[in-house]
Amino acid sequence: MARINNPKSGNAMGRSRITSPSQDTIRDDGTSLISIVDGEQIQIEITVGWMTDLSSSTITAKVVEGANDGAGAVPKTAQAGGVVTTLPIIDSVTTDNKFKMVIPENLIDSWNIAPTADSPVYGFIGLEIDDGGVGDAKQVWKPLRGLVEVLYSPSEA
Known about the structure:
By secondary structure, this protein is mainly beta. Helix content is 0%, strand content 34%.
């Protein structure tokens, strides 16, 4: 929440230049790294702290294949024409603020490059929550974004 100083309170400060922002009014915890092993299927429980009821919300999570170089470096861009996977969402009780995002065991089966023993592959992950509002009353949050790191597994060779 933005804090606004009252110029009559005696503690007013000089104004900042419009091109020199000093605070971010919308904050997050930074990007996330989700590290999995090729062939692993996991469920990640998410608690949406600012909501109490998800019954009218639309939840979408996707992983976009990164432009992996085969050397294990974190890619800077998505793979041109790469795979986009919509992740399953499990939400058996929509009247609370919790759900599970599923990372499927076959996530990278169609990716251009598979991980090797010394070189993981990466995808970009994003989560979007639409509160179900209409027009200007609608809010859309993107509370999670980052990387999925997929490590080599001998059982998938």
